Amino acid sequence: MAEIIDYGQFAERLRRQEGRPRWELLDAVQREWGYEDPGGEPVASRWDGENLGYGIDESLPVPAALAEWWDSPVNSFSFRPRLYWTHTQWPPSIWVDEYGEQDADEDAYDDSYVEDVEDDASLDPARADGLPEDHPLLPPDAPDRRICIFMSEYQYCNQWGYLAAEASHPDPRVLVSTGGGWRLQSRSLSEFFLQLALERLPGTYGWTLKVRGADIQDPPAVLDRLTASYGELGLLPWQELACDALMYGGPDALISRARGSGSGFDLVIYGRTREALLQVVETLGLAYTEEDVQPPGEVPEPLEELGAFALTDGDADDHGRWRVDSTGTVPAAVTVPSALRALPDRTAVALDEEASLAAAGDAEGRVHLWESTAEAAADGPAEAVSKPLHRAPVTALACFRPDDAHRAVVSGDAHGVLRYWRTDCDPRPQPFDRRRTAVTALTAAGLATGPALVCAWADGLVRIWDLDSGSVARLRLGTGIEDLVLEGDGTLYVTGPAGQVALRLDAEGLWPHRELQLRLHDVDWGSYWSARGPAHAVRGLIGKVASDHKETALGAVHDLYRLLVSKGSSLTAAAPAVPFLAELMTDPANQARPTLLLLIADIADCSSAENRAAVRAVLPMLRHLHDDPLSSIRWAAAELEKHCAPRPGEE
Questions:
Q1: I want to staple 10 with a disulfide (CB 3.0 to 4.6 A). Which of 49, 233, 388, 591 is the partner?
Q2: Is pLDDT above 80 for 157?
Q3: pTM of this prediction?
């Protein structure tokens, strides 16, 4: 991060936000902390919330800001709701206080309360009088004292709402339920969502240090240094879990100072960088250990640092995936239909092999398709089907036939997002892939192994997918790639700054685990159980363990740990996963071997006889690892033997 953001000046940024587009500052803050638009469609909608069908007053308008937030492309909650751990309600429901205000020390409402509310077909107005008539938050002589709930903390310890009397306001105040009653949380809905992002996102994307009061040697001195060195953000105290917290800011850092008995930590420090966090620690005079400093929970895949694409005769890949074929024939130029040439703001075009499917992208992120017979392709059909697939200009397209019965188009944009659209159905809602740099070229064709897709990004990385298996190869070819053309014989034509080069691809070298990936598809993973329910995600994670990108492979192994490892016997997905994991462990090029072997060993360290039997079955193919050059693998192999040893009562 080259630019240092001084959050000590945030109050001034907040003041300047007045009168500007409502979500401008929210967008900026999210990007500053590392949130990136994932592309594709939202995974949570306003209608997915925790509305139990009670307490809805249809006569009340919904504030404009709340509807805008749901529809905004910068609403990170709708794309990544697990960043927030909150429940939403739509339409907002009327707060019911049948049993008195929620005790802030409880985790949730009593079950009998929930069941009773669910049994009601409608809301009894007598149970929803709202705030007392003399409550200081009520407007003078307000005839409506009710509160409209639009969001709740994950365990319902707190609820957030706005006054029904202010429902017609475009951006009303936000109230929060506390052990002491309803209090003002934010001066507006838009300010609330900004503050919620500041409370939640830094813990995922930033460096974190949490300090308990008992660990602060001189609390008054630390507090004096805090207030003298760092400025308040200008937001109201954040009230949640029986405490409130003031947020202070400094260069690339935020400091949350909790007040009240509900917080386990008096100070929580977030840094956009490790250096920024440690500077706060030094300024405040706090003691810490390296184990106290928590790294970001998510780190984006770094961009490649490559030179310009420049291959010559005789060049070949070290892994046997490609070689320069100097005898390749340059593909014939494609004739662009007149309908595409006339499209306003056209940024990219593509045709399929038979010129029966044409596509164009524009600067607004829309993709337009024309389907026709080969005879009519020169002029294109009369009408196009258009979809707003991207939130950035479309920079590349590829049209192809994934099989004999279907046609498809893949589009890439200036933000690095790929979308996949088979023309006989709606586009896939989630991105096919995404990186943090622009897509520069796309191509697709049917090979002897099946349909393949190739994409180049601006940093010089090229990915090649075998679409039937999902296998992917990463080629670090270099920057400046302007065009790609893949032909059915396995020749990839790459056009760069120095002209065009023909690469002869080798499918076995590109996708060494293609057959394993296909066998993964034969397992009904949804019929097995993981730590998070049906094990649909296991197949994709095992595929990622085979990645030649180390961070991807390690991340997949860690995710499989969370899904498959348990001392109990209820996780039935572990046993069918073991043969695939063992097969990947035998590949000396695997990027996650020490951790992967420990995963296999720990699957055996449980009460499930089926899981232990699955690991014991693959033990002979892994015993050679006792002599592996890496000490970490030798240690993991010993753990594997220990966990597979017979147990008392076993024959």
A1: 233
A2: yes
A3: 0.85
Q: What is the DSSP track for 571-640?
A: -TTHHHHHHHHHHHHT-TT-TTHHHHHHHHHHHHSSS-HHHHHHHHHHHHHHGGGGG-S-HHHHHHHHHH
Residue 624: CB atoms within 10 A of its CB come to 10
What is the spatial distance between Cα 18 and Cα 11, in angstroms, rounded to a whole number? 12
In sequence order, which residues have a C-beta less than 8 Å from that of residue 301 and are 6 or more positions away?
435, 436, 549, 551, 552
Tokens 């014989």 correspond to 489
CA distances from 30 to 463, 525, 555 (A): 29, 35, 23
Residue 548: pLDDT band with limits 50, 70, 90: confident
Written as six digits, the tokens of 307 are 């030179």
Sorted by sequence, the CB contacts under 8 Å of residue 605 that are 6+ apart come out as: 567, 643
Radius of gyration for the alpha carbons in the chain, expressed in angstroms and rounded = 29
Beta partners for 500? Answer: 495
Q: Among residues 2, 74, 81, which one has the least CA distance to residue 49?
A: 81
Distance CA 481, CA 459 (A): 9
Identity of the residue numbered 204: T
Tokens of 312: 């010559």
- DSSP readout, 62-92? PPHHHHHHHH-TT-HHHH-GGGT-EEEEEEE
Angle CA(174)–CA(180)–CA(183) in degrees, nearest 5? 15
Per DSSP, the residues of 195-236 read HHHHHHHHHHHSEEEEE-GGG-S-HHHHHHHHHHHSEE-SPP
- Residues paired with residue 455 on neighbouring β-strands, in sequence order: 442, 463
Res 290 pLDDT > 70: yes
Nearest-5° Cα angle at 78, 75 to 80: 100
**Sheet (strand 86-94) strand order:** 86-94, 147-153, 159-163, 174-178, 181-186
Instruction: Tell me the C-alpha distance between 596 and 583, whole Å.
Output: 11
Q: Locate 527 and state its tokens.
A: 């019929």
pLDDT of residue 126: 41
- pLDDT range class, residue 50, cuts 50, 70, 90: confident
Closest CA relative to residue 622, chosen from 607, 613, 633, 608? 633
Element (H, E) at 516: helix 514-521
Angstrom distance (rounded) from CA 175 to CA 192: 10
Q: In the numeric block, which tokens belong to residue 143?
A: 């005839």
- The residue ranges of DSSP E strands in 267-388, in sequence order, are 267-271, 322-324, 346-351, 357-362, 366-371, 385-388
Going by C-alpha positions, the residue among 137, 181, 166 that lies closest to residue 60 is: 166
Number of H helices, E strands in the chain: 17, 29
540/536 Cα distance (integer angstroms): 8
